[in-house]
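hiii, so i know i said id send this last week but things got crazy w the move. better late than never?? heres the sequnce for the chain we talked about at the cafe, plus the structure i predicted for it. fair warning i was half asleep when i ran it
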Amino acid sequence: MTTMFPNYSGFPIPVVDEDHWAEMSGGAKGIYIVLCRLSDRHSSRQFKVDDGDLCKKAGIVPRTLFSARKELVTKGLITYNRHVYELCDATTGQPYSKDPKAKLPYKPKSPSPTEEETTKAARVVPTETKPMRVEGVDICDTDFSFGWNLATQPAEQHTRPTYDFDFSTL
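okay and structure toks below
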């Protein structure tokens, strides 16, 4: 669950996508964010943390910790046993794997292109090049004299209005 940003921590997206976040209390949200950070820090989804430290980091009181922890366990986002927390898969509500330190495989939303599709895309035959101006405008499709495509005549030149006030005296 690590991120590629320095000084940032990972957060499982399904928690928000599956509406767990909208249904969580403020204390549960605070604890869950701290637990995600501690998971990154320990490089494991399972780690031990003292209740006092968790309350201090989340900015909550012990009574809120107990109710929020119970809420997270009920939703299947964490498991808890004697100060040992484990982050669970938000889609299944179960722990991810036997080894909490094992890196989770990335599952793309769409299948990756096959080798055959990749080689077909690489074998694109270039079309005939057309002469271009320096500005990058194709000049092959221009078959009229310059200016004939104007719908109207250019506007008359307007002069700026003059004022009787002398601004240099300011």
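btw The CA atoms of residues 38 and 99 lie 17 Å apart. thought thatd interest u
miss u guys!!
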